[in-house]
Amino acid sequence: xxxxxxxxxxxxxxxxxxxxxxxxxxxxxxxxxxxxxxxxxxxxxxxxxxxxxxxxxxxxxxxxxxxxxxxxxxxxxxxxxxxxxxxxxxxxxxxxxxxxx
Length: 101
Hints:
Blueprint: H1 5-10, H2 12-26, H3 36-47, H4 50-64, H5 76-79, H6 93-100
């Protein structure tokens, strides 16, 4: 399984998703973020609970998985990137139809 971690690390949306997965598994709420002790307690609860650890691992696999390729690795094309690929948004089908008329 080969993943292009360097490019993923440069993408802020990767980090947002990763933190979201971890916070959700920890059961983070506004009450949890009131102090560093509360955050530390939530983290300790996470690492002491096998079910929560498995949930985080499964969620991380989902966060790292590229759904456009078979298996868990990145495509050969994605492995060649040195920074996140910038692309134009796809046009809606309705917009394409209007252009043809």
